[in-house]
Amino acid sequence: MPSTHDFGFPMQSLDWASWVPVLDLDRATPNEIKVLEESHPKAKENPYYLLLVQEAEVLRQRSKLFNTIMYGPRGASRAERELAATAESRLNGCPYCASVHALRYVQMKGDPDLMARLMEQGVDTPMEPRPRAIVDFAVKLAATPSAATEADIARLREQGLEDAQILDIAMSVAMFANANRLMQTLGEAVMPQDAAP
Amino acid sequence: MRDLLDELAGIQPGSRLDGLRALRPDVRAAVAGSEAAIFEGESGLTTEERHAVAQAVAEWNDEPALAAHHAARAAASPRLPALLAHAEMLTKRPDQATPAAVQALAEAGLAPRDVVMLSQLVAHMNFMARMLATFRLLERA
């Protein structure tokens, strides 16, 4: 059976192609333009957002949720939110999501080796105890929410995470349970035309 | 401002979980806003269809309170089986998505905008289920 895993998980910027007709930007209403601008700096050039903006108010609320969960100040570090998002995207098989967030993690935290292995080998690749605790929790909550247990929370606390930070990590996982399902099922990752193989 | 998650998770004002949630007030506002946009917005999908799909996704995620919330306003329609089949794949096996699956929705009469609404609805319910599971864990741990 074909799987979205089959594309592989290259650690480079990818493009995304929609399987569903997207909005023609020339015909966008002022409200649609506003929602695109609120959603992402490059949303007006991105087929993913041009697709989703056809339900403008749903996208407006979702972008607000996404941006506060992934980029809101304080709490869990942005790198650790990205780590959880990348592990889940790798597990679910969303190459586009995984590459975006793996690259963002490296940008913020360094450690390209960890991300390269996570992308190539998957979520079981060896790592230090703190990222391990985050990835293990993320993977369980991603796959079957009830599979995550108090023991996973205890491990995160042992690694020095406060409950507010644990909630941030969990919200990142919840958000990517959402994001992966949109990206994976409404279109697919494609190699950029100008990229080296 | 309180949202559906507070209600279903039984988060009392002034409790420890209420305090943790208060650190990110935009999450509550956007959850409430998403609920309104997805379930009350104008759409080619009927309100009853949207609640029926939401109920099923909550059940697949083992969230009975969330399922019961939607069951009250759910009702079947001739094309509901096609909507549920797509929702089940999105929820349980998102890596098996294909252009043909999207095409099947078009053949069931869904406009592109309706496909977006259905996908957003299923994605949102998968978000909600993980939030509820997290609140239970943090309450107990």
Automatic annotation (TrEMBL), chain A:
Domain Carboxymuconolactone decarboxylase-like: residue ranges: 57-123
Coiled-coil residue spans: none
This protein's name: Putative peroxidase-related enzyme
Top-level taxonomic group: Bacteria
Cited InterPro entries: AhpD-like (IPR029032), AhpD_core (IPR004675), CMD-like (IPR003779), Uncharacterised_peroxidase-rel (IPR010195)
Keywords of the record: Oxidoreductase, Peroxidase
Keyword Oxidoreductase: yes
Gene Ontology molecular function terms on file: peroxiredoxin activity
PANTHER family: CARBOXYMUCONOLACTONE DECARBOXYLASE-LIKE DOMAIN-CONTAINING PROTEIN, SI:CH211-175M2.5
Pfam family, any one: CMD
Keyword Transit peptide included in the entry's annotation: no
TrEMBL record, chain B:
Gene3D superfamilies, A to Z: AhpD-like
Highest taxon, organism lineage: Bacteria
Classification via InterPro entries: AhpD-like
Protein name: Uncharacterized protein YciW
Annotated organism of origin: Roseococcus suduntuyensis
